[in-house]
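Q: What does the assembled structure look like for these inputs?
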Amino acid sequence: MLDCFFNPRSVALVGASLNPEKLSSIIFQRLKAGFPGRLYPVNPAHAEIGGLKCYSSLPDIGEEVDLAVFALGAAHVPALLREAVGVVSCAVVVSGGFAEAGPGGAALEEELKEIVRSGGPRIIGPNCLGIYDTLSGLDTYFIPPERMERPARGRLSILSQSGSFAVTVMDELAAEEIGVARVVSYGNKADVNECDLLEFLSADEETGAVVMYLESVDEGRRFVDAARRCSSKKPVAALKVGHTEAAATAARSHTGALAGRYEVYRAAFRKAGVMELRGYEDFLVACKVLAGVEPAAGGRVMIITDGGGMGVTIADECVDLGLDVPPLSDETAAELRAVLPPVCSIANPMDLTGSVTDRHFSEALARTLEGDDFDLAIVASLWGPPGLTERLAEMIAAKKGITGKPVIVCTPGGRYTRERAVLFRSRGLPVFFSPGEAARAASLLCGAGTRE
Amino acid sequence: MLDCFFNPRSVALVGASLNPEKLSSIIFQRLKAGFPGRLYPVNPAHAEIGGLKCYSSLPDIGEEVDLAVFALGAAHVPALLREAVGVVSCAVVVSGGFAEAGPGGAALEEELKEIVRSGGPRIIGPNCLGIYDTLSGLDTYFIPPERMERPARGRLSILSQSGSFAVTVMDELAAEEIGVARVVSYGNKADVNECDLLEFLSADEETGAVVMYLESVDEGRRFVDAARRCSSKKPVAALKVGHTEAAATAARSHTGALAGRYEVYRAAFRKAGVMELRGYEDFLVACKVLAGVEPAAGGRVMIITDGGGMGVTIADECVDLGLDVPPLSDETAAELRAVLPPVCSIANPMDLTGSVTDRHFSEALARTLEGDDFDLAIVASLWGPPGLTERLAEMIAAKKGITGKPVIVCTPGGRYTRERAVLFRSRGLPVFFSPGEAARAASLLCGAGTRE
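A:
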């Protein structure tokens, strides 16, 4: 049971400090600002921290604590964790200097494992950033908010063996106004591993999709079972890094993990209905689209653009990803010819040309998606044409609402274009800035690689 | 000889207007603001436009004109072009409604060809945006600047059959402060085609690299010859769209071009030393890196990061692209151990961890690049660690300067990170926001696919 990690009523911060040189100072500020439960700073050097009573040790708190966050030198952690047995239910150890740091650190990590085995608290970490949770208000990430924005609440949960990866992704998602439920950086996994976390998220009603960054998986069979159960309820996607030898060696030294052969992972993902992600960009695409957009019923994509070259490029990308870009039926083509100017190329991809207006996009979308010929659409609006206005986004969203099929917006460009993206996002339309990403989003909505 | 297109002393705008509904109004404003030579508006409906005398026809100007821009209905173009024989040396026909618009338009386009054959002016277009040239000051792109920013002067030249593609790329490059020399959208190529343009750019001393978007190539053998000559002097990269059937069909209706089999293009690129680009993102990467960064002497990449997971991901991407990520020599590793904290992972990829400082990055870069073990480096700085400051960019640029080898910056993240990118750019370091793009930039600097 991992509830103590994700729904704690009380949190102790071991190593609490206001010294800005200490990572714990940022954690303290984040907990004080965002965590609604009881907060106990623990540090024998202080009687009070930031207006809160500071305790000399965990037992000194005098009552049970759901979660203790350890943010101090690795050498101190085992002894303090032993004191915590019977006092705290679970612990996030953000401290580095364990198995990833050589034999001395590995010995310390063995001590942690031994404490867990002998009935001590469950542990996430060490060598991790821990938990960012928009439900519980917990934030153990020691990166200052001006350097890493926190995403708002959403239904996406992220598991990441790498802390820096989790941080960077969260920062990007926040900049694109994509919300999250829970983001767990679990590092060396001395105790809690990807299987435990996946089982928790599988049952978690607040989580609508799971995206994972993996360097290694410890319990192969359990992972496949957990992932299969989870993917039967919500989309699950995973990036397994280290598929090349150079990278695998690096992963080993990074979190002390034995990476294993990539083909084994790929087979496991397939068996478990997990979408295989191929890199950082792909990871971001999955985050942006899986939790917020309904899945497509099939892989037949309609592409509508006002820039012919962009339509051709998107069609290439879609077909390369195994999607189908079928031609228009004669009926639909005839209907569209009646309502669109003759300069338009009535086909798939459809080119509305630089003479486009908002209405042309909305007509083209409605009349192609409403029948049974297409499962989803990519609307690639380039903002050059003077006939496009701010109303484009609401008109597209309205037609999308009527057809009930997924619509992905692809809108490459510079500053003007990036500013306009908010018009689409605020109406629930996922926005991508490149043909490759938009096509990939479409393929993920079709369950890329998991339907055979 | 295409000099009249790229170094005109005088320009006439046929169809000149101040009516904001007319595309020619934007062209007029752009020419008036940026073109330093003589400018002649031509429109029988006006005596004066924007303070300039307006002529009723091209012959009415009464002297020879280097370049005429035609921006009016397709049906009017052939007659006006006939009048121009002996008056103008060359013409950019931005008007659409020719071969791409069906049989009637195709007949008009045949008339244009006939005029060229019988000694009329050379033509770029029709159905194009024409020329944006930071050397001559010419800008025939009819997209208002608030919707499409114009890049500053640089050494990159771009050829694009698609106008919207050229516009979007220019807008993105401007937002990332990448300069260009000349950008030509040449559309239906009734006369001037990719071979003519490539021959011009090959000899053009202002052009340091050429990146092309192709839907079709008309003269295969001539293209290979021209491309080979050009690539022997400067990097040449090409994206051939329509490599899938759906996309090829769309390309046909877009610019009336017969696309041809993709494998033929691929073989031609290889033969001509042209780097093959695989999509829009790839096109942008090529634009960002080829004109501004010296080529690498080989494909041995050193990867230095403060986020272990990011290093692993970049290593995967590099190896997938055929680059080599060799281990550190024992000597280099020993040297680095003496100057870096024990928590660092001294390997390739190198993980400087969240304890990183500016100096760690600069030490790691200097000591790995200075010997003969590596040809270039990817520096992947994540801005979370508090020890990184604004000075990082200048320290990296300084070490790069000493070793003389290419250094690519990879800095994924949100708002804070994007703002900091200017620190690197202003010191001549190319910046990418994802591991995939950074690795691809490295592979292009190694002449991806052209060395066999």
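The two ends of chain A are 34 Å apart (CA to CA).
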